[in-house]
Amino acid sequence: MLTNPSSKYHPFPPVALADRRWPNRTITQAPIWMSTDLRDGNQALFEPMNAERKLRLFRTLCGIGFKEIEVAFPSASQTDFDFVRRLIDDALIPDDVTIEVLSHAREPLLRRSVEALHGARSAIVHIVNATSPPFCELVLGMSRAEVLTMAVKAVLLVKHLTAEQLQTQWRLQYSLETFTATELDFAVEVCDAVSAAWGATPDNKIILNLPSSVETATPNVYADQIEWMHRHIARRDSVILSVHPHNDRGTAVAAAELALMAGAERVEGCLFGNGERTGNVDLVTLALNLYTQGIAPGLDFSDIDAVVRDFEACTGLSVPPRQPYAGELVFTAFSGSHQDAIKKGFAAQQPGSLWNVPYLPFDPADVGRGYDAVIRINSQSGKGGIAHLLESHYGVVLPRRLQVEFSQVVQRHTDRHGGEIGAEQLWQLFAQTYLDVAQPLRYLGHQLFEHAQGQGIQLQIELDGEPHALIGVGNGPIAATIQALGSLGGAVSVCSYEERSTGSGGDAQACAFVELAAANGPTAYGVGMDGNIVTASIKALLGGCNRLTNHADFRQRRAIENEGFTAVSSPTAVNPTA
Ligand code: KIV
Ligand code: ZN
């Protein structure tokens, strides 16, 4: 048991921003996206990507629509340096994509970074240094003034190194690492100093990036910090305010969304939340969250499975089954009540109208997923899901009471065998239960004939393997068949009858559903399928009788009362010509 946490942890102090505006704002447009997949994410992998994998992921990112991609930390490794060179030398960068490289604010590293970018059409040099007191003191061993001087000198050096290289359109990004733990007055002082040193103008904006390098507070605190900066930095029109939320508390997506309401214009993150520790903000979720609010995200995830495949192949990580929008199970309902609601929602959904399917906040088709996986059956599933699968895969629409009856059959099956049952297995179970029940009665053939009292039928069946010819008359084929079967000794009545067709054209099959009741006994459904509706109805009646006869209650009663279908030597005689 963890006790007394306050002796170890303190709540994050609130920001003094009484007139905060972000809570009343909504996001109305997509931010500028920057993918750090090839840097942070790559650093944090068990096995860093080799050049081929990096290139594959770079192409995937370009295909998704990222226009700014941080491709490497070239001063940190030869592999990263060579990768940047390859992109430039082999002209692998699309014209509308800007590559970015990260560097600490140290002269040799900055020189090497600019060298790596030589000849690029367009490039962002990204300088980072920590600014929070614990970092400045503990890690850098510097005062605030020294940190400020280091940042400005770094910017001036990059300005100098890039000034002569006119073939490249240079931009600068400056990140205050550990921004969320930095005193805001110092953060603004550093930001203003570096943007002045760069000479930022509305035509040559500097990117000021305010990361939650380690997420330590609720997302509203981050939003307050961003709004405070948005309102206090100088040359606001010459600055692109960028955020880079990490996910240590699991709220990176919320933090990014609130930060956008608070004035941020750009978001850095990774596909599926990859990155150091718990990762960077998940850009897929963020983009598709926007999409579900009716905002075009500017990133294309219309084939999410292809993105997952590339991501997994390149990083060696796997996307969990419950990952928003992308996981295998995120559009799947196993629970009966959910399935029932989804089935009704699908039925009511009109093409071209607003999406409104219960429990499915998002149309799976928008990320290239089909509806097949939406409803999956296990022991928690109910009649709605089962009926939906039979209808969507086999075109068989079950009457409601049959749905209830069959769902109990499915439940017994899944309780006994455990796990999940797919559409094909479900159909097999349905066929076994209703269509292939040919004992004790089996249909062999029939002929209808006119009779003065109504409809006559000559019925050929097998009873326990013995052929029988029966005759009956009624006000229609069903009543006539019931009467013919009555000659075998068992009394059943029809509680309900429904017929439908499945398939279309030459494949069309009639499907008859008959609910039968034994005298004072249980009820059971019979189902018949055939190209001919009368034959389908007779098969349904025979199937229902068989199921009643095989019903445990019925067997018991039959033993007592000698009920049931037994061969009789002289079936009721009806004159076919009468
Ligand atoms: O998390 C962080 O602070 C970073 C910086 C390099 C932006 O990754
Ligand atoms: Zn980071």
Can you tell me about this structure?
The protein is an alpha/beta fold and 578 residues long. The protein has three domains: 29-315, TIM Barrel; 336-435, Arc Repressor Mutant, CATH 1.10.1220; 441-561, Alpha-isopropylmalate synthase LeuA, regulatory domain (Double Stranded RNA Binding Domain, 2-Layer Sandwich). The chain is 39% helix and 19% strand. The chain has helices spanning 37-43, 51-64, 78-89, 107-116, 133-140, 144-163, 184-198, 219-232, 252-261, 283-291, 304-315, 336-348, 383-394, 400-417, 423-435, 477-486, 533-550, 552-561; strands spanning 32-35, 68-72, 98-104, 122-130, 169-177, 206-212, 239-245, 266-269, 441-451, 454-463, 466-474, 492-502, 509-518, 523-530. The strands form three sheets. The chain has an eight-stranded parallel β-barrel with strand order 1-2-3-4-5-6-7-8, surrounded by nine helices. A three-stranded antiparallel β-sheet has the order 9-10-11. It has a three-stranded antiparallel β-sheet with strand order 12-13-14. It is elongated, with a radius of gyration of 36 Å. It binds 3-methyl-2-oxobutanoic acid and zinc ion. 3-methyl-2-oxobutanoic acid (KIV) binds at residues 40, 102, 128, 175, 177, 209, 211, 213, 244, 246. Its EC number is 2.3.3.13.
